[in-house]
Amino acid sequence: MQEKTYSSIESLVAAIRNCRECERHLPLGPRPVLRATSTASVLIVGQAPGTRVHASGIPWDDPSGDRLRKWMGVDKTTFHDESRIAIIPMGYCYPGRGGGGDLPPRRECSRLWLPQLLAMLPQVKLTLLVGQYAQQHFLGSRRKRTLTETTMAWHDFAPHYFPLPHPSPRNQPWFRRNPWFDEHLLPDLRDRINAVLPASALL
Predict the structure, then answer these.
(1) Among 9, 32, 63, 173, which is most exposed with the fewest C-beta within 10 angstroms?
(2) If you ran DSSP here, which 8-state letter would residue 38 be given?
(3) Can you give 139-177 as a three-state secondary structure string?
(4) Could you give the C-alpha distances from 54 to 78, 109, 128, 130, 190, in angstroms and in order?
(5) Cα–Cα distance measured from residue 2 to residue 196, given in angstroms and rounded to the nearest whole number
(6) Tell me, what's the pLDDT at 98?
(7) Which of 161, 138, 132 has its CA nearest to residue 42?
(8) Residue 75, Cα to own-chain centre: how many angstroms?
(9) Residue 141 and residue 190: Cα distance in Å, rounded?
């Protein structure tokens, strides 16, 4: 695909939603799922849509999304208000399943689209890096040895980045092994969200 420069974030997002670059690799076909406007002050970068999100076209429209909203302390209306919160996964389409769950997000998305998207989000003050793929891309060599160690060092990445584990119900054992996450990290996360979103937007 020939890279093109877009004059507005609206035209860029429209082009991404029409992207067919990976079509031959996608078992359910292309359906890019993302939301972004130039006024957003929070950016959420996750992995890639699952089958439920692929079906609905609504980002984080699943139990993982319910947990993420609870972590952030925001309701669904605020979460899906793209004028406040941009949602850009590392891969925009459902990648299919592998032996241990969903396949990794395809790399074409970040190569073709992510730099232009980030350049058109000048108001973002806080980026939530949900899971290892987002942390690898945005933190690079600043990451720690493991996702747990990176998450435990969340203060090191302030004020712009906030690393988080994936909120999937399958990660319940991790949450039980790491009580510091609920006790210390989540209150700080909500304070950060409160600092960049209007108070009326919060639960």
Answers:
(1) 173
(2) T
(3) HHHHCCCCHHHHHHCHHHHCCCEEEECCCCHHHHHHHHH
(4) 21, 16, 21, 18, 28
(5) 36
(6) 86
(7) 161
(8) 17
(9) 27
